[in-house]
Amino acid sequence: MKIAEESVVRDLSGVWDFAFAEEPLEKLDPATVSFTEAAPVPGCFDTLPDHYDFRGCGIYRKRVVCGGKVRLFFGGITLRGAVWFDGRLLGFLEHPLTPEEIVFDAGKRGEHTLVVAAENLFHEESSSQFHQYYDYYGFGGICREVTLEELPDCYIQHISVIPLSAETGEVKILVSLAGNVPEKGELFLCFDTQEEPERIPFCSSRMEIVRKVPSFRKWEMEHPFLHSVLLSAGKHVRKVSFGIRVLSWNDGTLRINGKKVKLIGYNRHDSHPEFGYAVPLSLAASDLHQIQAQGCNFIRGCHYPQSEKFLELCDRMGMLVWDETLAWGNKEEHLADPLFRQRQKEAAFLMVRASVNHPSVILWGFLNECASETKAGYELISQLRQTILAEDPSRPITFASSRGTKEICLDLVDVVSFNAYPAWYLGINEKKPFHLIPEVFDELVAFAEKKNCANKPFIISETGVAAVIGERNGERWSEDYQSEYLSRVLEYVLENEKITGLAVWQFANSRTYSATSGIIVRPRGMNNKGVVDEYRRPKLAWFTLAELLKKRGR
Ligand code: ADA
């Protein structure tokens, strides 16, 4: 017996009708908008010549043929979104660059009008999820894919596959059904390595199924083998891919299928001056290939959830990823704000839900460099930990701290991660304060040990210095200074058993703003700490690190 093919999910990418308005989302009435332009989806409207750097709302319209119950999926909208169907407001999308979906009744099958507005205005109240001061540019648009699926009465809402054993191939499959779920029914399940599907009776909308994948192969960095499982409930059929790899992290190291790994790689913004956050998949693939060919195995996806397609590439290539919710340097008043908290928890839930089946994701993170030395920080971090654990207990949890020895949340993480910039923000009165590298990092390792974290892996989640391409005078801002600094950091990490990972800040220069509080800190409106520039032209450090990694057999 064969089970039916996967249900059709339509990708709505392409050219949409477009209009720009200065009003905020709440004031928009799509009925009064005249759509005189066209714009690409995915795309960021403020990278297009006619609307370059504009702040307001990009309003996108598409006619779609559908009916009945419909699921609209948005891979990532910035900075906020709203969705109308035939003029009816379906809801707001409040989580920038985070996968969100809306299920609604589309009425009679036929042609309908879908309008999606993406607003890139800054809101400075403490509940806001994207503040102007964040050190990455607030591009606006429908940055990632939009898909549409017509759903049957009872449908599969979510499937997560948690690998339990890399020895036996045992996995736990969590399935949730939604819509008009019958009191009793039957589910069909079929792994890619199975001939005949298995019938599984159900009497609830949530099921937990533990099975051994027949004739399984492990997912390993060198052999990233993927399995899939097809599930059908009535007329709805969904398939998900997953990998069989088990993580462990309780002896001060990180292990994949029992093997110790040293994480070496980069922070990478999924952004580009010409595309904003709508980075073409081929560019992402080229970045990953370069990084892997250099001898690295690790990407910290800073500072927002990574797209499904990016993670799929990483799954296939055997790259390891730290995935985190969108945030940056949030202050105590943000962390204490009930709405900010609620949205961060929703964002963590949405991120884990969307990406839980990607074997490449080996760490969940959130709240980069927040006020984690405060009580409000402690409370929110603890709540985020609970939110993530409830969805996925199989991966370690971390966040990048910039609070040094003032940090108070280390008991809430599985992996200790610190961002530190010796030789850039520190030692500014010295010409080459490279002696600070071991001093600063040894102190942080000792601090973590003192806080009873010796059994937790330790990661340098950011370190780097800026270099303006072409500048070769050996001083700060030059390629030589960056090259020397990063090669010393890399040697230090490779030599040091206590350090499990390094994510250099950063792979490519990324767009931000020139000034913070009126002081010019980011020449050209770029964060210039990339080892390649924003167009991926390598700086000296790129070659130095490649050589060093090669010499170390990586
Ligand atoms: C921080 C932050 C990064 C970037 C970096 C820098 O550590 O997490 O996003 O802003 O500093 O370049 O200063």
Give a verbal description of the structure.
The structure is a single chain. This protein is of the alpha+beta class and 554 residues long. The protein folds into three domains: 10-151, Sandwich (Jelly Rolls), CATH 2.60.120.260; 154-244, Sandwich (Immunoglobulin-like), CATH 2.60.40; 248-465 and 485-508, TIM Barrel, CATH 3.20.20. 19% of the residues lie in helices and 32% in strands. It contains eight helices and 35 strands. The strands form nine sheets. The chain has an eight-stranded parallel β-sheet. Strands 3-2-5-11-8-9 form a six-stranded antiparallel β-sheet, with no helix packed on it. Helix 4 (338-355) runs parallel beside helix 5 and helix 7 (479-495) packs parallel to helix 8. It is globular. The structure holds alpha-D-galactopyranuronic acid. Residues 135, 303, 368-369, 402, 419, 462, 505, 527, 529 line the site of alpha-D-galactopyranuronic acid.
Radius of gyration: 24 Å
Helical content stands at 10-25%
- Can you list the strand order of the major beta sheet? 27-26-25-24-31-30-29-28
Distinct small-molecule ligands in the complex: alpha-D-galactopyranuronic acid
Number of helices: 8
Largest sheet: 8 strands, parallel
How many angstroms separate the termini?
47 Å
* Overall body shape: globular
Fill in the CATH topology of the largest domain: TIM Barrel
- What number of structural domains do the residues give? 3
CATH class of the largest domain: Alpha Beta
Q: What is the CATH architecture annotation of the largest domain?
A: Alpha-Beta Barrel
Strand content: 25-35%
Structural class: alpha+beta
Number of strands: 35
Full CATH superfamily name of the largest domain: Glycosidases
Question: Low-confidence parts lasting 5 or more residues at pLDDT below 50?
Answer: none
Mean pLDDT: 97
